[in-house]
């Protein structure tokens, strides 16, 4: 039976973006199934007492240099977002809503947000910018806003986040193979090893 990788992520995390660019190929190469698990990183931080490494200036500077090294290794674009950190509550609700109600557009939608944040450096804290980005990519901003205000969607994101914390998640990205946790985009070699 083929293995699965459960990928807990938040678009506000540049490390999640890098893992997101690499996991589909790793799963394709190993015959594994990739399961996307949107969660709210702010909720995880609050529940676990953790915080973004960027909150410690020296660590934050190092983290972005290190992520840049990985982006070059992976051959993907990465630009530090001058608006970081971003409040992703509405974005992650919208992603969850797409996954639940429009699964055929889920990846295109998630791509759109990850790229707006970590390739184009857009300010997705601003509703007008979000609306512009969505329109540019063929999404209806009003429909997306309605999705993110849907009670079932709010509940699903909350439950994903609570489940992540119960399973030992303290940051993003976090990947599970069976019940084994792999934290960080710099652990993808271990993810691939476990799948093989």
TrEMBL record:
DSBA-like thioredoxin domain location: 4-195
This enzyme's EC code(s): 5.99.1.4
Annotated Gene Ontology cellular component terms: cytoplasm
Catalytic function, reaction form: RX + glutathione = an S-substituted glutathione + a halide anion + H(+); 2-hydroxychromene-2-carboxylate = (3E)-4-(2-hydroxyphenyl)-2-oxobut-3-enoate
GO molecular function: 2-hydroxychromene-2-carboxylate isomerase activity; glutathione peroxidase activity; glutathione transferase activity
Keyword tags: Isomerase, Transferase
GO terms under biological process: glutathione metabolic process; naphthalene catabolic process
List of catalytic residues: 13
Family: Belongs to the GST superfamily. NadH family.
PANTHER family the record matches: GLUTATHIONE S-TRANSFERASE KAPPA (PTHR42943), GLUTATHIONE S-TRANSFERASE KAPPA 1 (PTHR42943:SF2)
Name listed for the protein in its UniProt record: 2-hydroxychromene-2-carboxylate isomerase
Natural source organism: Pseudomonas koreensis
Species lineage: Bacteria, Pseudomonadati, Pseudomonadota, Gammaproteobacteria, Pseudomonadales
């Amino acid at each position: 039976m083929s293995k699965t990788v459960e990928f807990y992520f938040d678009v506000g995390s540049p490390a999640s973006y890098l893992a997101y660019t690499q996991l589909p190929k790793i799963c394709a190469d190993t015959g594994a199934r990739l399961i996307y698990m949107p969660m709210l990183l702010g909720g995880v931080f609050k529940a676990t007492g953790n915080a973004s490494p960027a909150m410690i200036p020296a660590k934050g500077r190092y983290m972005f240099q290190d992520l840049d090294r990985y982006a070059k290794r992976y051959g993907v674009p990465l630009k530090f977002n001058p608006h970081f950190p971003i409040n992703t509550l509405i974005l992650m609700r919208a992603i969850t809503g797409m996954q639940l109600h429009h699964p055929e557009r889920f990846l295109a939608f998630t791509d759109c947000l990850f790229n707006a944040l970590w390739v184009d450096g857009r300010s997705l804290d601003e509703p007008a910018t979000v609306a512009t980005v969505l329109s540019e990519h063929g999404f209806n901003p009003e429909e997306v806003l309605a999705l993110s205000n849907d009670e079932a969607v709010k509940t699903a994101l909350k439950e994903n986040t609570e489940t992540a914390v119960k399973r030992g998640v303290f940051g993003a990205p976090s990947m599970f193979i069976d019940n084994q946790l792999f934290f960080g985009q710099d652990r993808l070699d271990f993810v691939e090893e476990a799948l093989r």
